[in-house]
Design goal:
This protein is about 40% helix and about 25% strand.
Length: about 260
C-alpha cells in the first residue's frame, strides 16, 4: 500500500506544470512582428510586455516560448503550455479556448505590386485573382470565406508569411497577398521589398490571448482577465504601449468574445 501511495505522489510531481496546477503560466507564441518576436534571446514585443505586466500585478510567474506556430498550438492543445498569443477569434478556437479581453485591433487586407492599380473596396474587386495567404490560420479562414462569396478566386496557401511576399514581389504566379496589414508592412521592411503596396482593408480583427479550457483553472483565467481590465482602466496598458506607438483595443461593455 505504501509503495502505491509513493508511486502516486511521484507521478503527480513528474506531471508537466500545466497539468499539475503550478503557479507559472506558460504562454506560447510565434515570430509575429510587430506583435511578438525574439530579441536577444527574450520573447519580446507589445503582447509579451502586456502579459508580463498582468502577471506581475497578479503576483504570478509567467514564462514564454517562441515556436513555429503548429508546435505552439499543439503544446496548448496537449497541456504543455497554458495559453497562446496573439490570435483572432473563430468558432473552432472557441471550442477549446477561453479568450482574454481584446489586446489590439488589427486589419486584414490585400497587398499588391505597385504596378497594379487596385484600390480594394469590396470582394468583387479581386475576382479572377490568385491570392497567397499564410495558413492554415485565422487569416486563411477569412480568405476562404471570400472565395465562397465570389467563387472566381484561387487561393495559394503557404506555411510562411515571408514566402508569400517574396512570391508577390518576384511576380511568381500570384496577384496579391492577403495579410494582417501591420505584419505585411513589417515584412516588406524586413525583406527590403520596394515594389509592393497595401491596396485596402477587408475587415477589422481583434487579437486576444487564448487559454486552454482543458488545462487551466477557470479562476486563474478569470483573475488574469480582471487584472488586465483593471490595468486598462488605470491607463497602465496604454502607457506601456506608447513605446511601440500602439494603442490597445478599446474595451466595450462586452469585453470578452
Amino acid at each position: 500500500m505504501k509503495r502505491i501511495l509513493l508511486f502516486g505522489a511521484l507521478f503527480i510531481l513528474l506531471l508537466p506544470s500545466s497539468r499539475a496546477g503550478a503557479e507559472t503560466l506558460i504562454f506560447n507564441t510565434q515570430d509575429f512582428k510587430p506583435y511578438s518576436y525574439e530579441a536577444n534571446g527574450v520573447v519580446s514585443g507589445p503582447a509579451a510586455d502586456i502579459i508580463r505586466r498582468v502577471c506581475e500585478n497578479m503576483d504570478s510567474a509567467c514564462s514564454f516560448r517562441l515556436l513555429p506556430w503548429p508546435r505552439a498550438t499543439h503544446e496548448v492543445r496537449t497541456g504543455e503550455a497554458h495559453a497562446m498569443f496573439v490570435i483572432g477569434w473563430n468558432r473552432e478556437r472557441s471550442q477549446s479556448l477561453n479568450f482574454s479581453p481584446p489586446l489590439f485591433v488589427a486589419e486584414y487586407g490585400f497587398f499588391v505590386r505597385k504596378d497594379n492599380p487596385l484600390a480594394f473596396k469590396e470582394v468583387n474587386d479581386i475576382k479572377g485573382y490568385t491570392v497567397c495567404v499564410y495558413g492554415p490560420s485565422n487569416t486563411s479562414i477569412n480568405l476562404e470565406m471570400i472565395k465562397k462569396e465570389i467563387k472566381d478566386l484561387t487561393i495559394e496557401m503557404t506555411p510562411q508569411d515571408e514566402s508569400a511576399f517574396k512570391k508577390l514581389s518576384g511576380r511568381q504566379s500570384i496577384d496579391a497577398v492577403y495579410s494582417n496589414r501591420d505584419v505585411g508592412y513589417k515584412l516588406i521592411e524586413q525583406l527590403a521589398l520596394t515594389n509592393i503596396r497595401y491596396s485596402g482593408c477587408h475587415l477589422k480583427v481583434k487579437y486576444y490571448i487564448g487559454f486552454s479550457k482543458q488545462f487551466n483553472d477557470n479562476a486563474v483565467v478569470d483573475r488574469f482577465n480582471k487584472t488586465y481590465l483593471r490595468l486598462y482602466k488605470s491607463g497602465s496598458i496604454q502607457e506601456l504601449l506608447k513605446q511601440y506607438a500602439m494603442k490597445p483595443a478599446p474595451i466595450e461593455k462586452q469585453s470578452l468574445p
